[in-house]
Amino acid sequence: MFTLSSTPVRSALLITLTMLGAGTVRAGEIRNTAALRATVPGGPQVLIPSNTVTLRAQEPCTPSVTPDGQPGAARVISSAAPGTILIPYTVSVQGDQGGPVTLNASLLEPTEGVQVRVQDSAAADARELTSLTLNPGQSREVTVAVTVTRALTATLNVNLAATCGGRSDRVNVTQVRLRPVAALLLSHSVAPVLAQPGDEPTFTLTLPVSVPEGGSASLTVTLPAGLSYVPSSAQLGANGAPVTAAVSADGRQVTFTPGTVSAGQTLTVTYRARIGVDAVDGSGRERDLSATGVAIVTGPDGQVTRSNEASATVRVTPGVFDRRATLIGEVFLDVNGNGRRDPQDSPLAGARVLLASGVQAVTDEMGRYALRNLTPGPWLVTLDRDTAPFEPVPGFGPRVADVFALTRLDFALQQPSAVTGSGLPSGAGAPMNTTVRQGPLLITRSVAPTAGGGSVVTLTVSSARPVQDVTVTDRATPDSETRTFVLGVLYSTITLQYVTLTPAGSNDPDVLWREP
Fold first, then answer.
1. How many domains does the structure of the chain reveal?
2. Is residue 420 included in any domain, yes or no?
3. How many whole angstroms separate alpha carbon 230 and alpha carbon 321?
4. Same domain for 312 and 336?
């Protein structure tokens, strides 16, 4: 009650109410009004109403983590160690206010070799997450990563706490039960690695037993076509004790049961497999055959641990069953035209011999060629006219040869008319001969034109005494490519020739050699 004297009386009163932070107000609205009664001396009582005051209470930022778990009543995850366990959680904000939420992952009982952290996802490239900002009613999926760096048998209580402002959700436990990783690493080898049909190479299976309690072991090998298990050949370890082997009806699978194994033991089983004639295919080429093994250890509690698959590969060569054929022969300038390689005939180096399949060979300095690994049967054999621009002796040109095993096919070519029987040029305007002498070696070089505008270059090499590793190099012209002839041993006179498509000029050949 207020008493007003000479102060004029107003018809309304404005009241301001302030809410103090020390109190607790529940969510909702509180409406309030006030009235001022005034008495004027000698006059009537005056009632002055105020404005309406509304108090609105707001719930502060309240974090929530799900699933919610207590140490004695938490969700359970089982995993092997070492390794990383990813635990999903959902963080949300309740109330009327949002804000930054601080996250903290921890172990209720710290354990050596175990680290935990909060990350933004379960991806391999996930980033560490220490806080996030959420609006009221908003939620976010996060992941707690538990990294175990050693083999461990333990129960971990992993907790995720969230704090926003003055409120928090502190206990959200997930129980992780760890067991050591029981990895069986099987290795498989064979000796020898190169074999032929009829051979019986020895295969070796090696298994370090890492199962904590050991157990009953079995090893199963799958053999490819071409390999068959040799009965009673399986042995255990170095002492050669026999191992029981069960073979499937088709002979492709063999299961060895060596018995009980202990933790820390290294199990070794050897066996032999015979290579059959079906291991060589129709082409007669080498072929790889791989035997694949896998091991299983069944523990005392019935738990089965399986190893990796391990392969051993043997390379099979055809041996006496080799059906591949080889075609050999010579390309030469036939002086007398009899189709046979006589001492006075000159070999043609650099001539290209072609098969219809595109396979080709180039003759060496002695005019020889070889085409290997051919399928037996008829082959059309021709000469490349660019590298051998001479007419063949009748009956010795391109023809079909029945190639089987080792077959010989020579190409006898007619001597160009510009070249005499000695291989030296003749006639007016013939290029001058070049003679080079180095040590015991004498080289005579001559050039003769051909009908197509090219040249035949003849190198006659002789030695006063036997020499080894003779290398003769020559150029048709100073700007043309080098022609090289290699002779293993030279103890007499030999004639070398090559053909050019354009006219050849004078040049001094080079020669290297080695004394015996």
1. 5
2. no
3. 21
4. no
Q: Which residues contact 407 (CB under 8 A, 6 or more apart)?
A: 325, 326, 327, 328, 401
CB 335 within 8 A of CB 319: no
Q: pLDDT (tens digit, 9 = 90+) per residue, 252-291?
A: 999 999 999 988 889 999 999 999 988 877 666 788 999 9
Q: Let me know whether 248 and 287 are in one domain.
A: yes
Is residue 86 included in any domain, yes or no? yes
How far is Cα 333 from Cα 320, in angstroms, rounded to an integer?
A: 37
Which of 180, 209, 224 is where one domain is finished? 180
Among the candidates 369, 385, 414, a domain finishes at 414
213 and 282, same domain (yes or no): yes
Q: Confidence class of residue 7 from pLDDT cuts 50, 70 and 90?
A: very low
Is the predicted pLDDT of residue 450 greater than 50, yes or no?
Answer: yes
276 and 227 Cβ atoms separated by less than 8 Å: yes
- Tell me if residue 319 falls in helix, strand or coil: helix
- Global pTM reads 0.42
Evaluate whether residue 421 is within a structural domain. Answer: no
- Residue 159: domain span: 62-180
pLDDT in tens, 421-440: 444 444 434 455 788 888 88
Please state, in angstroms and rounded to a whole number, the distance separating the CA atoms of residues 315 and 223.
14
CA pseudo-torsion sign 306, 299, 211, 124: positive
Q: Are residues 252 and 131 in the same domain?
A: no
pLDDT at position 5: 45
- Give just the sign of the alpha carbon dihedral 393, 398, 401, 405: positive
Distance between CA atoms of residues 143 and 129, nearest Å: 9
Q: What element of type H or E holds 47?
A: strand 45-57
Separation CA 70–CA 66 (nearest Å): 12
Cα angle 184-188-193, degrees, rounded to a multiple of 5: 170
Tell me whether residue 84 is in a domain: yes
Give the confidence band of 24 by pLDDT, cuts at 50, 70, 90.
Answer: very low
What's the CATH code of the domain at 381? 2.60.40.10
Return the CATH number at 447. 2.60.40.1170
441-462: burial string, b at 16+ Cβ within 10 Å, e else: bbbbbbbbbbeeebbbbbbbbe
How many other CB atoms sit within 10 Å of the CB of residue 146?
A: 24
Same domain, 48 and 92: no
> Which of 92-101, 422-431, 486-495 is the least confident region?
422-431
| Type of residue found at 296 | I
Distances in Å between the Cα of 62 and the Cα atoms of 21, 75, 140, 415, 431 are 17, 23, 14, 107, 108
Report, as an integer, the average pLDDT of 229-255.
91
Q: In the chain, how long is the greatest CA-to-CA distance?
A: 166
Cα dihedral 232, 237, 241, 243 sign: negative
For residues 31 and 17, what is the distance between their CA atoms, to the nearest angstrom? 11
